[in-house]
Amino acid sequence: MRNKVWLGTAVLVLVAAYAFYFANPNIAVSMFSNAWFLAVPLVLGAMVGVIGERSGVVNIGIEGQMLVGAFAGFFAAAATQSVVVGVVAGALSGIAMGAFLAFTTVKGQLDQIIAGVVINIVATGITSFYYESGKTIPRGLPNFDVPLLSKIPLIGPVFFSDGPIALFALVIALVLHFLLFKTRWGLRTRAVGEYPSAADTAGINVVALRLFNVTMAGTLAGLAGTYLSMEATSTFERGMSSGRGFLALAILIFGAWRPLRALAAALFFGFMSASASQLQASDVVNIPQQFINLLPYVLTLVVLAAAAGRVRAPGAVGQPFVKGD
Amino acid sequence: MKAKPFLVAAPAALALVLAGCGGSTGDSSSDGSSAAPKDCSSADVFCVGLVTDTGSVDDKNFNQAAWEGVKALEGDGVQTKYIETKDAKDYANNLKQFTDQKYDAIVTVGFLMAEATVTAAKANPNVKFIGVDQFQDPAATAPNVTGLIFPEANAGYAAGYLAGLMTKTNKLGIVLGQEIPPTQNYAKGYEQGSKAANPKSTVAKVYHPAGDNAFSDSPWGAGEAKKMLAQGADFIFGAGGGTGNGALGEAAKTSGAGSSIFCIGVDVDQWETVPEAHPCLITSAEKKLTQGTTDLLNQAKDGSIKGGNFEGKTGLAPYHDFDSKIPADVKTKVADIVKQLEDGSLKVA
Prior knowledge:
Largest sheet of chain A: none
Number of domains of chain B: 2
Shape of chain B: elongated
Radius of gyration of chain A: 20 Å
Largest interface: A-B, 59 and 60 residues
Number of helices of chain A: 13
Subcellular location (chain B): Cell membrane
Order of helices and strands of chain B: HEEHEHEHEEHEHEHEHEHEHEEH
Protein name (chain B): ABC transporter substrate-binding protein PnrA-like domain-containing protein
Strand content of chain A: under 5%
Membrane topology (chain B): Lipid-anchor
Pfam families (chain B): Bmp
Largest sheet of chain B: 7 strands, mixed
Strand content of chain B: 15-25%
Helix content of chain B: 25-40%
Distance between the termini of chain B: 71 Å
Shape of chain A: globular
CATH superfamily of the largest domain in chain B: Response regulator
Strand order of the largest sheet of chain B: 1-3-2-4-5-6-12
Oligomer: heterodimer
InterPro entries (chain B): BMP_lipoprotein (IPR050957), Peripla_BP_I (IPR028082), PnrA-like (IPR003760)
């Protein structure tokens, strides 16, 4: 029943999108491209949250992890003049930030919220202090057309004519959904996040699994940052993550801790944002831009409020696991 | 197992230490670096201090332009020195370093320092303060503060005029930061200038929705530019700090950049500040900060400076690589408009 509702909604959205496309292909493609462009870091950020919270660790440091990823990626690429080195550095810095969260909260059993806040503060401090103006990278990550897929009307130009990280975000959401719900790793991860002592009794090494998951999830946050500084733009600005890490947390809840729903939620938010700027730019309605720009946030709030009663966080989120407790 | 607070405490302390470093100073006294600092309380020495907004004096932007304006004053009996602000919380402390040493004139850079500047001026009525890009509200200002302001609308008008003459699609775009008077003026000038040059042209205009990061959200700017370009715009004016720079970078990456797609920078000659925009950056709507700072400091030195607001000059930055690509008659028309704006015969309503 539930699945049918979701499938129905998806089909409805797709039909509406194509109706829009046939009415005005130019505007439709540009708006959906804009939506996806804005959604990519949100998707990656939400996936970090999905992995963390499904394993029982709240990660409110996604914002900081992203910012460090953007910083490390950009300045590594600027120093070596190689974008490949930049992407690798961005991902590795994400792992380092993930490892910090993992070891303090899982091994050290610190309050997870505090550890996340620390990540955000340290990230802002470090990236502002070591920021150097005037550095450039040889070029941003290039866009490319995926063979065949990029020929599909609407979906092709929107999803399959982008840079590598955008494509990766799309793929990782699908892969993560499969991993989480169809594999042994996924079952264990969910068990550890729902009821760690039961998982422990069943012989799962709770601490090791949480350490691994939270650390590796950092890669995605690092890549989200790299997307900001090397794919969406070719520049680093102080504080350029601009609250996207926090938005990703809202999307995680909106997406009911499920990768594919989070992907849909991120696209929804991106599209609301694209609609707001489209209304503002075209001047068709004469209302102050501040009100139009409220639209995505108000709608997100409404949807969140509607979804609030129906979604449930993993059972053990926020609680450190102490064996034999 | 007990919690290990030190795991968190160490990096947290590190962050605080980093953030608390205040500012670095540098000086370039006129008679060489080895000389002892002069006594600023003496009447024979004119001491000028500059406090940057968060950023360095070689940022190729506001801070650097203002510092160059200060350095232009160097000569006999002038000492110049700067303090780089690392954190907005340090504005007052950095200003105090200069007032404690009895500096004669202090230049502060950027809109964000306006409040700290007026507060310091009220505490030190004998020191002349020059607030670059800080509009002085007569009700709140002090008599010893002069705001160096720029008619952004004029700069926007010139940029719009050029875009209006050059556009092939008759669609122009402008990506702005937060909606505040300077960005509103840029947009207003841009719209009017493009209409004056080409009545058929339309301008798509977007302001950044959020407050806090409205001027550093380059990915958002890039996304907006991408959308405008896909809808047929062939000129993108990025007027909003990092947000606008993101738009310039996106236009530069679009196919046709430099032949059918162009972009316009803002505030300073962005050819120097945003190298990734070179493929499309035809010019920048420029505030002549260096000249304005020097003019005001000379007035402060000879005592003719007045409080309130002083209007600096605006114009278009050099065309650089695009000099040969712009038709000669377009250049003449634009130069004419810039001159009319400067002498006041053309006013932006």
